Prior knowledge:
This protein has about 575 residues and is α/β, with parallel strands linked by helices. It is about 40% helix and about 20% strand. It has helices spanning about 20-30, 40-50, 60-70, 90-95, 125-135, 140-145, 175-185, 200-215, 235-245, 265-280, 305-310, 355-360, 375-380, 405-415, 425-435, 440-460, 475-485, 500-505, 510-515, 545-560, and strands at about 35, 60, 85-90, 100-105, 110-120, 150-160, 190-195, 220-225, 255-260, 285-290, 320-325, 325-330, 335-340, 350, 390-395, 420-425, 465-470, 490-495, 540.
Amino acid sequence: MSAIPSPHGGRLVDLYLRGDALAREKSRAAHYPAWTLTTAQLCDIELLMSGAFSPLAGYPGEREYRGIVENRRLASGLMWPLPIVLDVTEAFAAELKPGDDIALHDPEGLLIATLRIDDLWPADTTSEARRCYGTTDPSHPGVALLSRRNPVYIGGKIRGITPPPRYAFGRYRYTPAELRGEFSRRSWDRTLAFHSSSPMFAAQIALAARSAREQRANLVIHAVVDDTGEGLVDDFTRMRCYELALDALPEQTTLLAAMPFHSRQAGPREALLHAIVRQNFGFSRMIVGKDHASPSDDHWFDATAAQKLLAQHRDDLEIEIVPVEETVYVEERAEYLPLGEVPDGMTPRRLEHDELQRRLELDLPIPAWFSPPAILEEIRRARPPRHRQGFTVFFTGLSGSGKSTLAHALMQKLRELGDRSVSLLDGDIVRRHLSSELGFSREHRDLNIMRIGFVASEITRAGGIAICAPIAPYRETRRKVRDMISAQGGFIEVHVATPLEVCEARDRKGLYARARKGLIKEFTGISDPYETPERAEVVIDTSRMSAVEASNRIMLTLEQLGYIR
Ligand code: PPS
């Protein structure tokens, strides 16, 4: 096959309104109930409106949704592997019924599209997970994504108003029609898509180059951007790495393109969706490796499941699938080879993701064969070793447990090191400056802790050190703060586990006495719970240890973890 393939279903869909119809719908939309699209939904709607999801003209109704989930078929019988859904909250859905129109906005309030509702129904993400992922295990990253969806699905046709504004990588963004046009303009009728959602190092570059040579096709690194920010590095760094990868590939025959796509981590079924999307963009071929579109801890799917499912659906697709083996480095030959071609007795070399991450964090050497130096430099800049990353030390414990004293002692020690700025977010100070209107109900405490977490995560992101010292009595809230900050740098939880009797006997501020008399309501440890941390990095009982000893212990832990040296 050598011509640009026709879109899935035969026609490239374009859902944008134009001219008078556009102006009319825009003014009507001011009166429609408005839904703010999430990051993932913005990716979906952009692909729907531009025809990357052809032949879909909107979100499926319940019957069609079931057909997709159960049989991988649309109502028309055409193959479609994963439902593209619009999930909304119960509160938003409460007043809606079929026939109503809704407006779909981006988070800044810009009108992106409107939708006429055909159907709305309570989502059953458990059976969706069972069918689409083969498991309901909540530790599967894809199942976890599903469980975070809103509880009501809405089906209906979309009327496109404007694509979501995208400010970065403009020169690499193409709609399916534009990329098809680009291929025609260059007279490229054998194009090979390399789907990429993580940086390409030497082995991936060698694999892509070799496949293109073998297929006698033009290679396009088709990068997925505007995902939800997970992975080794951010989208910006990753795109810069692809630009650098281009330097190692033949200039006349290779192209870099980007599209918004949010991964569902659905392995084989997602690989089918990738293939449909690539066919719609006009590719004649797509590289599919082992574990294509699988979560990085790859025990969830059989390694060749994606290649098998694609082969099974060969007749449903015009795009040709190019299955590839993992490429490894063979030192004895100074060459990158597919695993199956490594001569007997020679050792295939590879650096697993976790090992790469460990070496980056601890500033350990990375072998020269692993990456072109410029790409590694870019990665090292985005992922500095731990001793140059920001981090947060989060003290939690009862009132009077000694959090503030320890926090101050630790601050002095860290300031002495002098390599990073140190900010102290002590409970009292925060309550004065950041949370002055808040009381001590569960809701208010949670709000207080989330504010502290937000400020600490910003300090951490900017490479500084934040020391927090609130009571933070609730486990779930501490977990949220940990997640928020860990995405930016280090998070070290210190449980100041001084027993209640000791705190109460100290009673520096006389609060325990007043709480016992019922003069202070909801007092932590007396009339309000303190949920003991289960996985604090450090546990300190100040009735058994001085502040100096305790701060030394924390410094040792920071050293052990690699955050200071
Ligand atoms: S929380 O739960 O994390 O939001 O609390 P935090 O911001 O750290 O504030 C705790 C300080 O407020 C004083 N205080 C109370 N603590 C607990 N429960 C009640 N009801 C309460 N009312 C006032 C108390 O002095 C705490 O200070 P520390 O420094 O912890 O002793």
